[in-house]
Amino acid sequence: MSVLQRFEKRLEGLVEGAFAKVFKGVVHPVEILNAMQREAEAHKAILAGGRTLVPNRYVIDLSPYDHSRLAPYAAALAQELAQSQAEFIGEQAWTVYGDVIVEIERGEGLDTGMFRVTAEVFSGDQPPAPEPPPAYPGGYEQPGPPMGSPPPAPGGHRNVRLVSGDGRTYPLGIGSTVIGRGDQATLRLPDVGISRRHARIDYDGNQVVLTDLGSTNGSMVNGQRVSAVALNPGDMVQIGTTTLTFRVDG
């Protein structure tokens, strides 16, 4: 029996068949597992000694509608997906760092029946580097090019930081900073209204851009909900119940 067949068999008895009702006519868990397997295949890396390393952390972004329908079963489904992906990786004799992790998130901007899989290697001792994900309707929807981190501007760069209401300061370095409450975030904030990977800040030595990462509660700048926006000195960034002021020195 294949990994997919075993996965379908386990789903049959999970929460008394609720998944079949939840996913009728829209995205199905088997499609998600298929996509995870393709992502592992696409991001193989050869290690010393000929071993093949593949991602061990998979973030599943569902459309807002599908996410709301799935919410009561998300933890159980994530566990089943992780187990089946681990079985698939083992059958291929591939290597991972640590356990296979699956997280199910709300993906703003995705149509009903669409989902996106982000695959990355996560060792647990450093912030992960996400791969640019496609969106799946059972097939691919090719995304635009991911935002990169251009080289620093000539002549050095300004010191930029976020300052919380209680005076805590969070310096922003060149490159990308992921804000969230999970272990995978670069800048972790203990706020239950913040998603594990809530927003990303890209700094190229000149411009600072805030991008929402499909968070559940969204990101606000100066009271306006944003998907991506360049920050100006004094801008007020709100994520969850936390407000951060963007400051620039130099």
Describe it.
This protein has helices at residues 3-13, 18-22, 29-42, 64-70, 74-91; strands at 45-46, 52-53, 57-62, 101-106, 115-120, 135-136, 159-164, 169-172, 175-180, 187-188, 199-203, 208-212, 219-221, 224-226, 228-230, 236-239, 242-249. With 250 residues, it is of the alpha+beta class. The strands form four sheets. The chain has a six-stranded antiparallel beta sheet with strand order 8-7-17-16-13-14, with no helix packed on it. It has a five-stranded mixed beta sheet with strand order 10-9-11-12-15, with no helix packed on it. α1 packs antiparallel against α5 and α3 crosses α5. The chain is globular, with a radius of gyration of 19 Å.
Give a brief outline of the structure.
22% of the residues lie in helices and 29% in strands.
Give the helices and strands, then pairings:
Layout: H1 3-13, H2 18-22, H3 29-42, E1 45-46, E2 52-53, E3 57-62, H4 64-70, H5 74-91, E4 101-106, E5 115-120, E6 135-136, E7 159-164, E8 169-172, E9 175-180, E10 187-188, E11 199-203, E12 208-212, E13 219-221, E14 224-226, E15 228-230, E16 236-239, E17 242-249
Parallel strand pairs: 3-4, 9-10
Antiparallel strand pairs: 1-2, 3-5, 5-6, 7-8, 7-17, 9-11, 11-12, 12-15, 13-14, 13-16, 16-17
Helix pairs in contact: 1-5, 3-5
